[in-house]
């Protein structure tokens, strides 16, 4: 009974607070504990499913109705599979679905339900009085997907969005691995939550507005603040995170660096990728070689970086403008030091068009090792299909989820990065 009381408290906390990573992880841990608990019956001779195991229900990936309204039993009953470590999981269809709170926690949340053993299917439980017209009052604890099944995550995210649109509440998505040898059947990943895109947008907004020069360790600002963004087409035949053959030849991949004081109003394309700050932890770190205050057409520069501005004694705004003000495209290259990088920003005088940051080329096909943060499209452009393609391609190749965000560098309300759940393509 003590375990049930603890579960009830945890359930209450999880529902009254937003689904942060900590809560999602705690939910998975709680479900794994229920899965491994194997009493023959519960207090008062109530059935085992009242205090152990997990009641789960699969949802067809092709379903075109809200998942909580789908039925397979006449009347108001729904059939759930009773998952437990000592029972067969043969009744669980692969793909995606949802699961219920245990009875005690559901009652504590005002979502009590009645359930009986299914007389037709020994491994199933019938839940009665299912009120599909009031989804927020149903005892649904989480959604799940089978990570081994293609399309499972996309199905779970679709269900997560549908439930949010109907209730204003976010259900966590959990990974389910029925054959896990350690009985860790349920797992939580923050990146797989559809709402994670909002958090990424908020994080990018903070970095964009952080206009301090340099980093605490003395490196250029691109290593800790501002946003590195790379315009690249999303289309078949090329993984957007790979350097192009031209970039490999000249050892330079072209990015833009955007920040509130840089004044960028347009980029080199309508879609592409946003990367974490250069000092962010990653298996493959990126190295800045040089920077240009404007588009330098570096694809035609053999080594990507022209003669350095320092070698030409250009160490002030006035010196740069005197020599290159009339033709910024031909600018010398600023070296990657903190001071030179800030001077590269200052000489722009809010020039409008994109600048060009040259990053040393990296190996092909190492998407999972890169610190990618999001796919993007320019708001009002035709870049949505390309951004969706990049997101989907990255998930298929790397097994990781990045959100699609909209970028508006001239937003009237000042909000540059926004997340729309309907833009996603998983």
Overall description:
This protein has helices spanning 2-16, 21-36, 103-108, 152-167, 196-209, 245-249, 317-324, 338-346, 384-398; strands spanning 54-59, 78-83, 96-100, 114-117, 124-128, 140-146, 173-176, 186-188, 227-231, 253-258, 271-275, 288-292, 356-359, 372-378, 404-407, 417-419. With 426 residues, it is an alpha+beta fold. Mean pLDDT is 90; it is low at 1-18. The strands form two sheets. An eight-stranded mixed sheet has the order 4-5-2-1-3-6-7-8. Strands 12-13-10-9-11-14-15-16 form an eight-stranded mixed sheet, sandwiched between helices. It is built from nine helices and 16 strands. It is 24% helix and 19% strand. α4 (152-167) links the parallel β6 (140-146) and β7 (173-176). The protein is elongated and about 90 Å long.
Structure summary:
This protein is of the alpha+beta class and 426 residues long.
Oligomer: single chain
Order of helices and strands: HHEEEHEEEHEEHEHEEEHHEEHEE
User: Could you estimate the helical fraction of the residues in percent?
Assistant: 10-25%
Give the percentage of residues in beta strands: 15-25%
- In the predicted model, the low-confidence regions spanning at least 5 consecutive residues are 1-18
Number of separate strands: 16
